[in-house]
Design brief:
This protein has 121 residues and is an alpha+beta fold. The chain has two helices and four strands.
Amino acid sequence: MVESMKYCMQGFLLIEIMIALTIFTTVSMMLAHQYWQASALQQDAKLYVEATQLANKTLQEVANNKQVISSKIVGSYEASCESHPMKSCELRNFRVVKVIVSWQGANGEEKNITLASGMVV
């Protein structure tokens, strides 16, 4: 009896190793998924900031040149510009200018941002 107990205590059993590997694999997969999600969120944030900068730059170009740009493509972004007269304003050339920037998100979904401003064009 004592000999059989010594034999069992000498190393790990196969079931113990399999349980340990299962736990290790599960934890590793959870960490990999968290890393993937963080990377996707970081990429989305970067694209959103770049799109906002492009929209702001396009709106600034319209303000400086006093003419509305219909559409332009910069990298993976498409910027379109609309201009509508503001009827309630007494100024004749006062218009509402709206810039819409569209792009593909990190997960492939269509995203866009809109900036609008009133200006004399």
